[in-house]
């Protein structure tokens, strides 16, 4: 077992209002501003470039995915034609070549708006279904806006087979409370590269929950910034990698306003030969971000031999006037004491191992708050465990 639990500091150089960091290239809408990566760059060094199917080069876009939106009464949904490629609602600009190429290739945006003061009793469910892997990739853009003092949940359910690159912009206006749940339940041959950015307003609360079980290669970049003091962001994730599967999550929280909070908590399990997970967490605390609180954690459970879990937490701190900042990262096998405790009470070894894995994921899954999805995920964990009789 290896673990770290200390506020280590990575270097950042601030000049006026820009922060230069090796972890975060400068954003641009222009594809030519993003050179073709070689795989040696910091943001690409863990990604198997040969399995990207040339998305990072010149692979053609042109395929489509089926999108179905189920929204409760009062939610506004529309498909908007793009007339200005540089327009963004969340202040986001693509920071990698794949996202820039997808951004440029899309001709319309799917938009979901929770009007001011609305309180949803049921979630908005957006289902994206791939129709198969062909010679062309699919590109998509989505915008989610929770207007002032609204409260609700949006679920993004990805399934089927596809090569997809998407960009998702999220705005949580002042006083709003928004939960976004992303389910990557792809077929085994799918490739999904996703960039998701949220801007959190004054005294607003944003919860982002990522669940990744399917796909051949899934690479998700999730970032958060703040539009005023008092905003809170909670980024949670669970993932389960099987033999040969590559799952990569890259998190970036930019504390660019005072009195803001963030909490990042991701848990993953791996089984099978060449199963590979990557978790990169980074918290940037700017000079103006006085009085902030932040913590990030990643824990990985290795179930079989032949797996690899890379976990790299980072803190970039430009002010000492903060309430608290820290991180933790662990990677290891089953806790022998837990197994012994269960077996000593008559529980067979195989069932004891299943109980440990279920308990490992349960605290995050229960935070989704949607019973049907929670039950579906617990069943998916059971199915994953059955593949190896873990």
From TrEMBL:
Taxonomic placement: Bacteria, Bacillati, Actinomycetota, Actinomycetes, Sporichthyales
Superkingdom classification of source: Bacteria
One GO biological process term: iron-sulfur cluster assembly
Annotated ranges, domain SUF system FeS cluster assembly SufBD core: 135-360
A family per Pfam: SUFBD_core
Entry protein name: Fe-S cluster assembly protein SufD
Organism expressing this protein natively: Epidermidibacterium keratini
Coiled coil: none
Assigned protein family: Belongs to the iron-sulfur cluster assembly SufBD family.
